[in-house]
Write a structure and sequence with these properties.
Blueprint lengths: L1 H8 L15 H12 L15 H10 L3 H15 L3 H4 L15 H11 L2 H15 L11 H5 L8 E4 L17 E4 L1 H7 L8 H9 L2
Length: 205
């Protein structure tokens, strides 16, 4: 019952066709039973009519309970945030994904889009280096586009999704400046690379 109530409090589902049945205790029980079909330690068979996503979730987290606990705690913490933060979850680009789920990805993007922090990060880097270069590929918009591109660069939040907490203030050191192309690659798919890994991919050619 408590898990059902907790799941219903999560953001991301504004329209609920059947509010009484949506994530109700019976539905949550059946979903948990779907996972049992992958559990070799379970003597029964579990419910067999589940989806492919359940297998992916099981594969990602079944052997790493500590990570699962960290992600669950992060989701609970983030879901208690004001609607302007959790509302960002509803407008995520489909290509921005991670095993940790859309709630944490949405909050991650919300922090990246903080205009004040973005300006401070750009100003800090500009004062130290004299230019706004992508930290992955080195591209500088101003060199290519002149004044039109002088302040064009994205902020990428480098703190792992499972470590995001509303009470933890984002520092300038938590942000990296990257071009939009590299930024998309840093969020691409479930095995998205780190800045260092993406830099190695580029330099290996």
């Amino acid at each position: 019952m408590s898990l059902s109530e907790e799941l219903n409090r999560l953001p991301g589902h504004v329209i609920r066709p059947d509010a009484q049945r949506f994530r109700n205790p019976n539905g949550v029980y059946m979903k948990l039973s779907n996972f049992l079909r992958f559990d070799d330690s379970y003597a029964g068979s579990g419910l067999t009519h589940g989806g492919k996503l359940e297998e992916e979730v099981w594969r990602d987290f079944a052997t790493d309970r500590d990570r699962l606990r960290r992600v669950a705690d992060a989701i609970r913490a983030v879901s208690a945030e004001p609607v302007e933060a959790t509302g960002a979850i509803l407008s995520i680009d489909d290509e921005f994904e991670a095993p940790e789920g859309s709630i944490l990805v949405g909050y991650h993007r919300y922090r990246e889009r903080n205009a004040s922090l973005s300006r401070k990060k750009k100003a800090s880097v500009l004062s130290k280096t004299g230019t706004l270069a992508c930290e992955v590929c080195g591209f500088v918009f101003k060199e290519k586009y002149g004044l039109l591109g002088q302040d064009i660069i994205d902020c990428h939040h480098i703190v792992p999704l499972a470590q995001l907490r509303p009470e933890k203030t984002t520092k300038l050191s938590d942000l990296s400046l990257v071009c939009p192309n590299c930024h998309r690659m840093l969020h691409k798919g479930k095995d998205a690379p780190t800045l260092e890994a993406l830099r190695d991919i580029i330099n290996s050619d």
